[in-house]
Structure formats: C-alpha cells, structure tokens
Amino acid sequence: SSTLLEHMRAAFGDPLALVEQVYRSETPASTMAAFAPAVADAARAGDRLAAAIWREAATRLADAVSAAAAEVEPLISWGGRLFDAGEIVLEPFRDAVTSRVPGARLVAPSGSSENGALRLARTSGDPRVRTHEPHMYVFDVGASTTPQHSHQREG
Question: CA 137 from chain center: how many Å?
C-alpha cells in the first residue's frame, strides 16, 4: 500500500536498499521488527494491507499456541513485543486460538516475558538459579550444581 511504502521509506530509506540493510544487519529480525509499530499505525489508520499483515501474524501465533496446547490444560496467555500493537493483533489472536483450541481460557499476562522466564527457572528446582536481594538473579549455566556466590564491588 502507499501508506506502508511511505512508512518504509521513512524507516529504511530507499526501498531497493532494504534487502541489503536487513542482510547486513547483525540482528535482521530486530531490524524488520522495528518496522512493526509503523505497520500497526497504518492498520489503525485503516490501511487494509497493514491490517491483513497483523491478522496473518495473529493467525501464525495462534497456530504455534494450538500446537503447544495439544497436550496440556489450555490456559493460555501471550507475551512479546508484537502484542504491544494491542487489539489489532490481540483480537484476531484470541479469535484464532479459541477456534483452534477447545476449552481455551485466555488470560492477560501478569508480568513481562522476562518475569515468566524467571518464574520457570526458579520453579525448576535447579540450584544454579539463586536470588540475591534485593533484585538480582544469578544463573550459573556452565557451573556445577554447587551454588556460587557473586559479590558486588562498592564504589
């Protein structure tokens, strides 16, 4: 669409150079993901192509959730920066999940993706995950199962 092309030029410059920019990037997925807010803005402004991109993203995310929910209680939440787009992705995501996963219960996240990863790590029972108050967590991935203490220098 002309709106997305305008946003793309503002974000990346010459459209013909976009592929080269992405391939030269150290983090190509992040480079492209940086364009997601512009696509969200275009969708909110009524751009049909941009809205279709978000519906497709929601459908793909729901496909992944459906596969993961096949063997567990279907209590489902979501996380990640794509969901920062709000209802333009949440509504089609919820619709797709509930149509694919019988009995699915969708609940809003109670924290960030990092909070969820930390909770899983802490409940794993792995002694390599230790708390250092007030809010420091140390993960000794390559260490033995004997806890090691880290010290902070004052300065």
Answer: 22
Report pLDDT digits (tens) over 129-145. 665 555 555 555 555 54
CB 3 within 8 A of CB 41: no
Residues whose CB falls within 8 Å of the CB of residue 12, separated by 6 or more in sequence, listed in order = 18, 21, 35
61 vs 38: CA distance, rounded Å: 20
Could you give the CA distance from residue 5 to residue 14 in angstroms, rounded to a whole number? 10
Length of the chain: 155
For helices 2-12 and 48-68, give the axis angle rounded to 10 degrees.
Answer: 80
**Burial of 124 by CB count in 10 Å (0-12 exposed, 13-18 middle, 19+ buried)?**
exposed
